TrEMBL record:
It holds the Pfam family Acyl-CoA_dh_M. It comes from Pseudonocardia sulfidoxydans NBRC 16205. This is Isovaleryl-CoA dehydrogenase. Residues 231-380 form the Acyl-CoA dehydrogenase/oxidase C-terminal domain. Residues 6-117 form the Acyl-CoA dehydrogenase/oxidase N-terminal domain. The keyword Flavoprotein applies.
Length: 387
């Protein structure tokens, strides 16, 4: 039993940490306030090869192990969680293409996705369907050697930069159960009728856009059907979301770590009643609880990532890690604000931003309550065992 990182992972983490401390931490608060898109940071991530994290080496990617994958999102989120979103949606989509695409699709897209020359995202959610993906209404009707797509997608990260954008559609609206008639089409940004219509205002998760995308009679070549076979779209998306839950769990660890760091620093420096507030037992109890939650979340996340490296199905493990880590992020962000007192509510301090970023982790890639039911059903069915 080894709870440590190997030498390669430690070096990788240090490289990431140096990049975050140099390029992200100094500008995050100001750039978020200005609503500025972080083009320079994106360029830096390209130079590090991070857009190729999950892409096999044969297509020009890093082919990184999943613990290194988690380290990436943890470190970037420690600096600015919104930046991790740019890389997260790209990675989920790239993983899906690498594992489910045809050889022609892989060779066409993966080399440029690996360098960041191309970027991508994933279009699943709709105005009337989020967690219940089988309830989507976007339809693709076959017309000769093309599909004609009509529908609206919501909350699409990287929508203005994704090319191609994988879109979950119904290719057979009469199929029962519904997932048997669901497919994913790789829609290119230049397609006529494809339009990014609005940026959605958000409490946090700034730095990256979240958009509404409308598809009106968009013609997509049949060769753009992911994997080349209809009816596999939901399974393809759900398998990719297992990696998505690892990245959400890791983002949560990054937010929790930054909250803890800021709280610890403030407790040492802030004085009241003749001494540092860290001398007060109430502050000490909060700091200790934050440390326990943070390290527990980190170990759970690395455990789930290492299980994925073993090649086993790990929807239960990734779900557990995502629940534990996102709850830790929420709790640590709140406690950091409490330790800061009135200053925690000020936009001049980092904890205010962390407090706004943390709630998304409990919602994204499956709400925590839904994931709790997924975990429970797996346990009851004997598909997962805790011992």
């Amino acid at each position: 039993m080894d709870f440590g990182l190997n030498d390669e992972q430690r070096l990788f983490r240090q490289t990431l940490r140096d990049f975050v401390d140099r390029e992200i931490v100094p500008v995050a608060r100001d750039w978020e306030r200005e609503g500025r898109y972080p083009s320079e940071i994106v360029a830096g991530m390209r130079e590090l090869g991070l857009f190729g994290l999950v892409i096999p080496e044969e297509y020009g990617g890093l082919g990184a192990d999943n613990v290194s994958f988690a380290l990436t999102f943890e470190e970037i989120s420690r600096g600015w969680m919104g930046i991790a979103g740019i890389l997260g949606s790209h990675s989920v989509s790239s993983w899906m293409l690498a594992h489910h695409g045809t050889e022609e699709q892989k060779r066409r897209y993966l080399p440029e996705l690996a360098t960041g020359e191309r970027r991508t995202g994933i279009a699943l959610t709709e105005p009337g369907a989020g967690t219940d993906l089988q309830g989507i209404s976007t339809v693709a009707e076959r017309d000769g050697d093309t599909y004609v797509v009509n529908g609206t997608k919501m909350w699409i990260t990287n929508a203005r930069y994704a090319d191609p954008l994988p879109v979950l559609v119904k290719t057979d609206t009469s199929a029962r159960p519904a997932h048997r008639g669901m497919s994913i089409l790789l829609v290119e940004a230049s397609s006529e009728g494809f339009e990014v219509t609005a940026d959605i205002g958000k409490l946090g998760y700034k730095g990256t856009e979240s958009c509404e995308v409308v598809l009106t009679d968009v013609r997509v070549p049949a060769s753009q059907l992911l994997g080349g076979v209809e009816g596999r779209g939901l399974q393809q998306a759900l398998s990719a979301l297992e990696t998505g839950r690892i990245n959400i769990a890791a983002r949560s660890v990054g937010v929790a770590q930054r909250a803890y760091d800021e709280a610890l620093k403030y407790a040492r420096e802030r004085t009241a009643f003749g001494g540092p507030i860290g001398d007060f037992q109430a502050i000490q109890l909060r700091l200790a609880e934050m440390a326990v939650q943070l390290q527990s979340a980190r170990l759970m996340t690395y455990w789930a990532a290492s299980r994925m490296d073993e090649g086993v199905r790990m929807d239960t493990e990734s779900g557990m890690a995502k629940i534990a880590a996102s709850e830790a992020a929420l709790s640590c962000a709140m406690d950091a604000m409490r330790i800061h007192g009135g200053y925690g509510y000020s936009t001049e301090f980092e904890v205010e931003r962390l407090y706004r970023d943390a709630p998304l982790m409990s919602i994204g890639e499956g709400t925590n309550d839904v994931l709790r039911t997924v975990v429970a059903k797996s346990l009851l069915a004997g598909k997962a065992v805790i011992s």
